[in-house]
Amino acid sequence: MCRHTGKRLTGWDHIRQSLDVIFTTRVGTRLERRAFGSVAPDLTDKPSVPEIVLDYYVAIAEAIDAYEPRVELNGFALEQADENGAVQIRVEVTEVATGQRQNIGYAI
Question: What is the pLDDT of residues 62-84, one digit of tens each?
């Protein structure tokens, strides 16, 4: 179900929403699933130095591996990083069921 409209989601639309929820949920905030989520939200507002960008990659990769078996991670691309800490990452995945490659933009 779409968390914004309540409409039924299937296929890639459902996977994309799931990944968004995983990436933006801070570990420890779900009452019944304390381990669910990603440490990526904890990295928000840190300087966009290479080490922090690498930490984002690791956080996203671990979250996909742990919580979204419907996709396989192919890689990342740094789309934008500025001195104010704004980072745009493209996450490249393959949908297991269809074999289709998909890209997800993730703004930090």
Answer: 999 999 999 999 999 988 877 76
Q: Which long-range contacts (CB under 8 A, 24 or more apart) does 36-45 make?
A: 36/67, 37/63, 38/62, 38/63, 40/108, 43/108, 44/85, 44/108, 45/85
55 vs 69: CA distance, rounded Å: 21
| Structure tokens given for 97 | 């069921």
Residue 66 forms part of a structural domain: yes
Is the dihedral angle over the CA atoms 94, 105, 49, 60 positive or is it negative?
negative
* Global confidence as pTM: 0.84
Residue 38 lies in a domain: yes
Q: Please give the residue range of the domain that contains residue 44.
A: 11-107
Average pLDDT over residues 32-39: 89
Q: How far is CA 9 from CA 93, 94, 102, in A?
A: 19, 18, 17
Looking at the structure of the chain, the number of domains it has is 1
